[in-house]
Amino acid sequence: MSESHTPVTKSYFFGLLLILAALPSPSHAEKGNQELILSGGGGMGNFLIQQDSNAGAKLVGANWSYQFYDYPSQHHLQWWAQVSYSYMWDERAGGIEDRQHIVEVKPVLRMYPGAEAKGFFGEAGLGAAYLDEREFGNISLSTNLNFSMHFAAGYTFPGDCAVSLRYSHFSNGYTNTPNPGFDFFSLNWHIPF
Questions:
Q1: Are 125 and 107 in contact (CB under 8 A)?
Q2: Which domains does the chain carry?
Q3: Residues 6 or more apart whose Cβ sits within 8 Å of residue 154
Q4: pLDDT at residue 30 in the model
Q5: Which of helix, strand or coil describes residue 156?
Q6: b/e map of 75-90 (b: 16 or more CB within 10 Å)?
Q7: I want to staple 86 with a disulfide (CB 3.0 to 4.6 A). Which of 21, 102, 130, 160 is the partner?
Q8: Using one digit for the tens of pLDDT, what is the confidence trace for 41-96?
Q9: Contact by Cβ (8 Å): 45, 55
Q10: Rounded distance, CA 82 to CA 168, Å?
């Protein structure tokens, strides 16, 4: 990342974290009904869904999740509403820097293999995303508004903090052409409150 954009990038990220930290929690919420998820990761090659590579890109993000349904059974299921902000950047030859701001809203299903919400879990989400740039590296999107989906695997520690590895994909779902897709991965730290 070029030196001229470093303060801007940091101020966006830390400003967002301060806003999220200052949000009041609803009085009826119990500890663990909400999560702040901090993310770091990068772009991916074209080996999954996207047609071109954005493998050199870097990503930071913050997500706020609210658990609106908890179903303990043989396999513990949880439904979460999630709002996310991610910032991606990529330096190319000649000092050109691509930047991308991504805002997502989606329901997320989390499943634990046991009866308790502890240990390993799998997660999937499907919703909507707004990407502020249609051009990013080798990828040319035809729309700013896109479908958003992710798949993750993680582990919840004693004390309810969790870590997860997430694959995210954005595309217009063939509502317009071209539809090259946009993929990235992230390592996420979940902080319940």
A1: yes
A2: 6-22+34-192 (2.40.160.20)
A3: 120, 121, 122, 123, 162, 163, 164, 165, 188, 190
A4: 47
A5: strand
A6: ebebebbbebbbbbbb
A7: 102
A8: 988 877 666 566 677 889 999 999 999 999 888 889 999 999 999 999 998 766 77
A9: yes
A10: 14
**Contact by Cβ (8 Å): 131, 100:** yes
pTM beyond 0.70: the answer is: yes
Please give the helix or strand (H or E) that residue 110 lies within, else none: strand 97-112
Q: How far is CA 183 from CA 11, 56, 160, in A?
A: 25, 12, 29
User: Cα dihedral angle (89, 11, 38, 185), rounded to 10 degrees?
Assistant: 0
Cα of 122 vs its chain's centroid, Å = 15
Q: What is the 3-state secondary structure (H, E, C) of 71-89?
A: ECCCCEEEEEEEEEEEEEE
Is the peptide bond between 178 and the residue preceding it cis, with omega within 30 degrees of 0?
yes
d(CA 192, CA 37): 9
Give the pLDDT of residue 156. Answer: 96
Instruction: Report the length, in residues, of the chain.
Output: 193
Tokens of 123: 């997660």
Residue 183, pLDDT score: 86
